[in-house]
Amino acid sequence: MEDIAELKRQKLGEQVNALESMVKSRMTSEAVSRYSNIKLAHPEKAVQILIYIGQHINENQNIVINDGALKELLVKMS
After folding, report:
1. Res 3 pLDDT > 90
2. Model pTM?
3. What are the pLDDT digits (tens) for 28-67?
4. I want to staple 30 with a disulfide (CB 3.0 to 4.6 A). Which of 5, 67, 71, 75 is the partner?
C-alpha cells in the first residue's frame, strides 16, 4: 500500500511541475518572482494559483500574466 501511495504522490508532483512550467512560461519575470515567494510561504495557495491560471491559459492561449494580474488574483483568492 505504501508503494501505491508513494507512486500517486510522485505522479501528482510530476503533474504539478508540468503545470508550473506551463504557467511560469506565461508569466513576466516580476510575476514569477512573486509566485516563487508565495510558493515558499504558502505552497497550497501556489498550487491553487497554478490551477486557476492553467485553466485560463487553456481558454486563452495568448494570455500573459504580469505582476499586477497576479496581485489581483491573490486579492480575489483571499
Report:
1. no
2. 0.86
3. 999 999 999 999 999 999 999 999 999 988 888 888 999 9
4. 67
Long-range contacts, 66-75 (Cβ 8 Å, 24+): 66/27, 66/28, 66/30, 66/31, 67/28, 67/30, 67/31, 67/33, 67/34, 69/31, 70/27, 70/31, 70/34, 70/35, 71/34, 73/49, 74/38, 74/49
Three cell numbers, residue 75: 486579492
